[in-house]
Amino acid sequence: MGYAVTFIGFVLVGNSATIMEDKIKRTLFRLLSTPTYKSSYITGKILGSIFVGIFQFTILILAGRYLFGVRWGRDPLGLILLMGSYIICGTSMGIMLASLVKTIDQAHSIAPVIMMSMAMLGGCFWPIEVVPSYMQTVAKFTPTGLTMKGLTDLIVRGLGFQTVIIPSLSLLVLSLYFLLLEFICSD
């Protein structure tokens, strides 16, 4: 469960490098010299990244279910809502990251550090209950922590759709925050 969250996050946050590549190779500049708006470019990057995240999530869920017999909880709609919100949040974070870094190497270097830190803080590698209370508090504000909370409630505790509403909404609020930061920080 935690590894799925981590590896989906790696791909989504790592997408920031493609935006940097477009900037450095001047593809973005050439694209924006046409009657194309930057918002259209960003929307395209977001939708492409979301598609990749959904594809990766689907493969992981199906492989887990049919190759390893993983039971993904009793509410597939809750799982779809939660992971969809996580995919949107990870995509937004990757877009925001692209506005903060200046080179492809920076994007390639910082994305794994951020993702691994969030995975550890969010309880992707161990139960969040075994870490100190201050780390449990921090986890409540990370995309991975919110996702793991929802997944744990849904899959491990067998709770229903209502348990993922708050984490999903929180992830969507974080997404808006990341996109707002991207808007403020972009050049």
Mean pLDDT across residues: 90
Look at the helices and sheets and give the structural class.
mainly alpha
Helix content, binned percent? over 70%
Give the end-to-end Cα distance, rounded to a whole number of Å: 37 Å
SSE sequence, one letter per element: HHHHHHHHH
How many individual β-strands? 0
Specify the number of helices. Answer: 9
The general outline is globular
Count of spatially separate domains? 1
Strand proportion: under 5%
User: Which ranges are low-confidence, i.e. pLDDT below 50, for 5 or more consecutive residues?
Assistant: none
Q: Largest sheet at a glance?
A: none
Round the Cα radius of gyration to an integer and report it.
17 Å
Description of the structure:
There is one protein chain. With 187 residues, the protein is mainly α. The protein is built from 9 helices and no strands. Helix 1 runs antiparallel to helix 6, helix 5 (76-100) runs parallel beside helix 9 (165-185) and helix 8 (143-156) runs antiparallel to helix 9 (165-185). It is globular.
